[in-house]
Amino acid sequence: HVDLPIGSLREAALWQQLFVELGHVRAEDILSGSGLVRLYRSICSLDNHVPHLTSPAEISSAALAGDPVAEEVLSLFCIWLGRVAGNGVLTLGARGGVYIVGGVIPRFSAFFQSSGFAKSLRSKGCMSHYLEGVPVWLVTAEYPGLEGAGVALQQMLEPADAA
Known about the structure:
Layout (H helix, E strand, L loop, with lengths): L8 H14 L10 H14 L9 H9 L3 H25 L5 E3 L8 H5 L3 H6 L13 E3 L5 H14 L6
Parallel strand pairs: 1-2
C-alpha cells in the first residue's frame, strides 16, 4: 500500500486526477488490471478524450495495435512499476533480483521488455549505481505460488540423504 511515485509533471497531473477519485493514491491503484482502466480513464479525462476502452485486455490490445492513449497507459504502467520495484530494492537491499509476477505484464511482455521499466527501476539519483546489475525476471508460470508451495512440500517430504 505504498504511495505511487511521481517522476514528471505529466505524472503529477495524472496523480492529481487520481487523487480526486481516490484520495490516497497507492501503487496498487495503478499497477493492476483494474489500474490500467483507471489510468486510461484519467488520461482521457486530463486530455479531453472520450474513453471507449473498458477492460485491461482492450487497453493492452489497443496499445499493441498503436492506439496512442492506450500506448501511454502501458508505458506509464511500466515506468511506475519500475519505480516501485526500484524503491523496493533500495528499501530492502534486494540486489539479488526482482520477480515480476501476475497476469498483467505477460499480456504485453514484448512491450514491457522495451519499455521504460528498466530505466525507471535504476533511476534513483545518487543511488542509481546501487541498482546496476540487479536482475529482473518475468514469471510466466500460471500458478507460481502453488508450484512453489508444491516444491517446498516435496523438499520437506524427501529424506535428507536423497539430495
